[in-house]
Amino acid sequence: MKHIFHNGTDESKPTLLLLHGTGGTETDLLPVAGMIDESADILGVRGNISENGMPRFFKRLAEGVFDEEDLITQTKNLEEFLETAANDYGFDRSNMVAIGYSNGANIAGSLLFHFANTLKGAVLLHPMVPRRGIELPDLSGIPVFIGAGTNDPICKPEETTELAEMLQNAGASVELHWENNGHQLTRNEIEKAAQWYAHTVK
Ligand code: MLT
Prior knowledge:
By secondary structure, the protein is α/β, with parallel strands linked by helices. It has one domain (3-200): Alpha/Beta hydrolase fold, catalytic domain (Rossmann fold). It contains five helices and eleven strands; from the N terminus they run E-E-H-E-E-E-E-E-H-E-H-E-E-H-E-H. The strands form three sheets. It has a seven-stranded mixed beta sheet, with helices on both faces. Strands 4-5 form a two-stranded antiparallel ribbon. Helix 2 crosses helix 3. It is globular and about 40 Å long. The structure holds D-malate (MLT). InterPro entries: AB_hydrolase_fold, Dienelactn_hydro, LYPA1-2/EST-like. Residues 76-190 form the Dienelactone hydrolase domain. Keywords: Hydrolase. One of its GO terms (molecular function) is hydrolase activity. This is Alpha/beta hydrolase.
């Protein structure tokens, strides 16, 4: 997968996996990562799917309607890519925290839904429920920050709450932060994610 890797200055820190929103690139979330942990390794990945030229991490049938088969395939592909990247760059695969926005938050959520021990933690910014009707792996002890907008027309508040409950029922420790805003990222929610990270991710 097309990606960037930057070595951090503190080897004890996790590798931050950056997953962009629809139409984004592997560098979009660099400023966000810098606000959350400027001394961590960074792996920014570009989604392999092109929707009219806009990179995404999996196909969709319509706005908000996922191609579930492709979601499963692309989630496996990303998981395999992370193994390869860890070998190539020599970072600790077991110490990875995802930061995903929108479509990137959805594939990060899908990693958590399909693979045990794939992420040590996750910052999901404006995520949706990736899949329903499956049993989640044991996510005990995995901290997840969800940033959401009370007026988000794409990631509706009910769906955000549903996702938080699904993750919690699988054992994850979820912090849900609401902004009185829509789908866009706000500085305040990143600051809240940074505070959560400082207290939660070790
Ligand atoms: C998705 O397709 O993953 C969601 O609708 C969010 C987005 O618009 O990318």
